[in-house]
Write a structure and sequence with these properties.
This protein is mostly helical and about 250 residues long. The protein folds into 2 domains: about 190 residues, no CATH class; about 35 residues, no CATH class. Helices cover about 55% and strands about 10% of the residues. It contains 10 helices and 4 strands. The strands form 2 sheets. The protein has a two-stranded antiparallel ribbon with strand order 1-2. A two-stranded antiparallel ribbon has the order 3-4. Helix 1 packs across helix 5, helix 3 packs antiparallel against helix 7 and helix 5 crosses helix 6. It binds zinc ion. Zinc ion (ZN) binds next to helix 3. Zinc ion binds next to helix 3.
Length: about 250
């Protein structure tokens, strides 16, 4: 918990950076295999999100990141693992109503990775559910073994994508990324309701305002609006170029 407070924000930033830059930007499809929208169909985007997340997870526990100075020590990587497993196994379920299953690609991918790693690491007690005062918690016991599991899953998902192995991809998603444990879900919803916070976060974009001198732009000012609703309405009004009806 201390670790997550101290390093949570940095580890989440680094993970997102690597997810986007070296995650989505890496990996190749084998010669002669069609693109994943054709081979993996409805599972393509979930598996691609999982692949990008796994690249980030694998490298956030790499000492190279300390050596190049983007994180102060390996505790950042551990905070990333704590957070990912907790979210994938538990916290993200706050977004679902009782009885619902996981549908959205990012949520499925997080569940897939967390449940797969939990299950494959079970015999070595790599990650455990612990109960204290009637509340369930996720506890990572072995960060290096967990990293190794992430590496194995990354290898398998890359293989699925490179070879266009629909059945293997389907099995991974359906077995690990869709189902919700009803008892745990109920507990999480009850605990979350007491916190009175929202299950989603949104982003407000900075606004770039040109400084004009006649017809020339001489500078650009960055403004930070503070109301999400106003910004969305403004986007709709000024940039809604598509017709409402086709
Ligand atoms: Zn992504």
């Amino acid at each position: 918990m201390q670790r997550m407070k101290k390093y949570g924000a940095l580890s989440s930033d680094l993970h997102t950076d690597m997810h986007e830059c070296i995650g989505h930007a890496s990996g190749q499809i084998n010669a002669g295999v069609e693109t994943t929208d054709k081979t993996l169909k409805n599972y393509a985007s979930c598996l691609e999100e999982a692949r990008a997340d796994l690249v980030g997870l694998y490298f956030i526990m790499d000492k190279k990141l300390v050596d190049i100075g983007v994180m102060p020590d390996m505790e950042v990587g551990k905070a990333g693992y704590d957070n990912y497993m907790m979210n994938g196994l538990m916290t993200q379920l706050t977004r679902l109503k009782p009885g619902e299953q996981l549908e959205e690609a990012h949520m499925r991918n997080r569940a897939l990775i967390a449940h797969w790693a939990f299950e494959k690491g079970k015999k070595d007690n790599v990650v455990a559910f612990v109960t204290k005062n009637g509340k369930t918690y996720v506890q990572v016991n072995d960060y290096n073994k967990l990293r190794d599991l992430f590496g194995q899953l990354l290898k398998e998902i890359q293989r699925i994508k490179s070879e266009g192995d629909y059945n293997a991809g389907k099995n991974l998603v359906e077995n690990y990324g869709v189902k919700v444990d009803a008892t745990l879900h109920k507990e999480i919803l009850e605990r979350f309701a007491k916190l009175n916070i929202k299950p989603y976060r949104g982003f407000i974009q900075p606004k770039l305002v040109p400084v004009m001198n006649g017809n020339d732009i001489t500078d650009v000012k960055v403004e930070y609006p503070d109301n999400f609703f106003t910004q969305m309405m403004e986007y709709g009004k000024n940039y809604g170029f598509l017709p409402v009806k086709n």
